[in-house]
Design goal:
about 160 residues, alpha+beta, Ubiquitin-like (UB roll), DNA polymerase, domain 1, 2 domains, 5-stranded mixed sheet, 5 helices, 2Fe-2S, 2Fe-2S_ferredoxin-type, metal ion binding
Length: about 160
């Protein structure tokens, strides 16, 4: 039921999440960010502005960055979603995660999941970007702690390795 008391029909969707086939029943108004966090327990994807301006909710949909606060869960039917949880694990970090740690590109950590996924998207498309290309690609992800220089350094470090 929605907040006006109208029954909403649920639909079962099937998609690939972090490399694994996933099936879940969702309401037509459920946002992807809410499904990931509240229904699937993947809290690495953050809720920031809720308007697609901050990038905290960035995930990869078929390899492209999207703001999961602007996507309905039903829209991922048949697609592939990658969250920060699918990027690496505690015992096997992705090179970007290692570089962010080594370069001090993580402070409060709120923007980090979205930054990592934006960086992955960039490096998948362009393995050797310039500093300017890196800065432009992550411009949709707001960071209030590190000032971007360390983040750009970390991404550049992976690109140059």
């Amino acid at each position: 039921m929605c907040k006006w008391g109208v029954a909403l029909s649920r639909k079962s969707i099937s998609f690939t999440l972090n490399g694994e086939k996933t099936e879940i029943e969702v309401e037509p108004t459920l946002l992807l960010v809410d499904m990931l966090r509240n229904r699937l327990g993947l809290t690495g994807t953050k809720i920031g502005c809720g308007e697609g301006d901050c990038g905290a909710c960035t995930v990869l949909l078929d390899g492209k960055t999207v703001n999961s606060c602007l996507i309905l869960a039903m829209q991922v039917e048949g697609h592939e979603v990658l969250t920060v949880e699918g990027l690496g694990t505690y015992d096997k970090l992705h090179p970007l995660q290692s570089a962010f740690i080594a370069e001090g590109a993580v402070q409060c950590g709120f923007c980090t999941p979205g930054m990592l996924l934006s960086a992955k998207s960039l490096l998948d498309e362009n393995p050797q970007p310039t500093r300017q290309q890196i800065a432009k690609h992550i411009s949709g992800n707001l960071c209030r702690c590190t000032g971007y220089a360390k983040i750009i350094n970390a991404i550049e470090k992976v690109a140059n390795s």
